[in-house]
Amino acid sequence: MHGASWRGVARAALLSAIAFAASNGQSSNPNPMDSIRKLPGYRPTHDTVSLITLVRIAKYAPKSKSEWTAYVQRSSQQYTRDTAAMGSELRAARLTAMIRGPYTHDFSVKPGMTPAWFATDSAQRMASIILSFQAPNGGWSKHIDFTKHERRSGESYFAESADWEWISTIDNDQTTEEIHFLALADRAHRDARYERAVVRGIDYLLESQYPNGCFPQIYPLEGSYHDAATFNDNATVNVLRLLSDDSLGKFQYSSRSQRRRAAQAVEKGIGCILDAQARIAGKLTAWGQQHDPLTLQPTSARSYELAALTALESAEIVDLLMTITAPSDRVVEAVYAAADWLQAVPISGYSYEHYELQKKAGAGPLWGRLYEIGTNRIIMANRDGIKLYDWNRLTDRRSGYGWYTTKPAETLAVFKTWSWSHPRAS
User: Fold this and answer.
1) Annotated catalytic, 424?
2) Which residue range forms the structural domain that includes residue 382?
3) CB–CB of 175/139 below 8 Å?
4) Which residue of the set 259, 302, 369, 397 is catalytic?
5) Mean pLDDT of the chain
6) pLDDT tens per residue, range 353-369
7) Is 382 a catalytic residue?
8) Is 194 exposed, middle or buried (0-12, 13-18, 19+ CB in 10 A)?
9) Which of 7, 11, 137, 172 is catalytic?
10) CATH code, domain carrying 328
11) How many domains, in total, are found in the chain?
């Protein structure tokens, strides 16, 4: 069975159960790798760009072929269960397509959500809405406004479209933040529903982990760049931090078995991070935003997210590695190598605010989001995917995407202190 067949079976089940309407039109996206510019009626061509197929598994992971095959089969089975549940809802409601959920740009536990706030009726109402949008697989999608209403029968778990996609995801802090919210709500007001949802959410994260310890952006697998080992927007870091909390007993209602699995998952996840650290000309450097799930080489995602090394996510990974209580020699080596790279690539004399790069005497250091592999030149792209070296040539992706960052400065400050008690190996 080829990769196309795996997705084909699941997609056929979805189409027969839901019978998506074609009323949104048949416009095609000029670049199927660009989820930002999706047009009505567009559905990703998953099978043509799949990163995980039997052929690729046999080529790049022959020793763990059975594990990878079992993983993909579990993913397909979960996809079928998820879409069958929605199909049942739609038939009962006499609908032919899902209803889009209420949209918001992002969701996270905000600073103003204090323990006192979590004790309010508003917090409890929001928690009930979050519960209602937990997908059958135990995760959450993104862009749902949890201040509006509980999910209605036939309503999508995703707010950007009524297509079956992004269900569920760790992109943009999702699933991990819903778990955090419900855990805090439970601390203010014990509720077995919250606790069951947290446990289900953790199980979802554990189930989504690849055999090599990495995490896809979306699970069940959706194909395209979503199957990449995803460090972008701290997806993997967020998951490992949460699973670490679980392994240490932060969620008292989590079973011993789940805590043990979480500890094992964290160990495997750190292994994935170490294995994915790019070695250029024999020298360890940093990480990409996303890596091929089988070869662990940096790879591209959306059309303007080129295969590259990344300063922002690499800094966040270093932050995570520096929290390990008794780091192995390999972890120490990885931290020093990444710190060396971060110290070597910043620019000075520029500021970056409100998506505008400007010359400013004495400003800096400033890091680019993406660096060309092998040259360490800062790169970027518009939606056409053509590599650029000059920020002034950005047009349709000039705003709305952080091409520069100061985050590594914070990481390097922490590293300076960390290095005193963790000397570089000779």
Assistant:
1) no
2) 277-426
3) yes
4) 302
5) 89
6) 999 999 999 998 999 99
7) no
8) buried
9) 172
10) 1.50.10.20
11) 1
